[in-house]
Design brief:
By secondary structure, the protein is of the alpha+beta class. It has one domain: Glutaredoxin (3-Layer(aba) Sandwich), CATH 3.40.30. The chain has five helices and four strands. A four-stranded mixed beta sheet has the order 2-1-3-4, with helices on both faces.
Length: 130
Amino acid sequence: MARPVYQAEQILIYDGECRLCVTAKEGLERLGRDPSVRYVPYQSDEAASRLGEGYRTGRPDVAYLIRPGGQVQRGFEAFLPLLPGLPGGRVLTALAHIPMFKGLAVLVYRLVAKNRYRWFGTVRPPDSGF
């Protein structure tokens, strides 16, 4: 069955080689209530095309969210628009607007992103066409 196309589609570009990232993506797909979000591995032609000059071969430093208007959000900011559709997401969204909590969340995101391969390992890369 073909996936419906939404006019206001958002694209979350995640690291398809990172075990933590793939697991998080699967959780977002299962728990999220926003059908306009599409998930694309960073190691794909589409990710390279969507990110344009911002794309670098290899492993990404962060996740990316491409908003319907073309705005690109990176890192922790990429997940903020997805929170309201998750169970308990409204509470997390409210907390993310508190400067001290947001600052701590950004630091934790950076620490985990930097060490994700060492701490969580890798998965077989998706067929990306490269």
